[in-house]
């Protein structure tokens, strides 16, 4: 299974009377997310064929931008298990049962997404996703998965997060 794990775009800091769940994307958040969505849509092996999102407004907005760029005709699926602070085992169970289109994009929140990556591929020493960030994982539903790439948002190119983490780790003497 090919999985694109995507953090929502930059959101407003405060949504009076709406709480954290009601926070929406800023103009910058929409702009960066559109750029990421266009980049993903350029190649079939990284273009989302289906999208699951957290129910929080900023994630739904991010998912809708991705769906538009990918020209998806199916609806974006809101999946409660992608909500912040949910148990990673819940989303792993859903992923293991998924028989649909791939790559499957999961849109959600930190630190839950980093915990999901660790659950899928093991501890690679990776520091996590920035807003609008993407990491792609191949997973067979049973054993450890493989990180295919992460997106460097500044350069808009793929990087190997495992290699990056190894280079940043302090060397023992």
UniProtKB/TrEMBL annotation:
Domain of life: Bacteria
GO CC, one annotated term: cytoplasm
Pfam families noted in UniProt: His_Phos_1
Cited SMART domains: PGAM
Entry-linked NCBIfam families: sixA
Record's protein name: Phosphohistidine phosphatase
Organism of this sequence: Sorangium cellulosum
GO molecular function, one term: protein histidine phosphatase activity
SUPFAM superfamilies: Phosphoglycerate mutase-like
Residues that span the membrane, as ranges: none
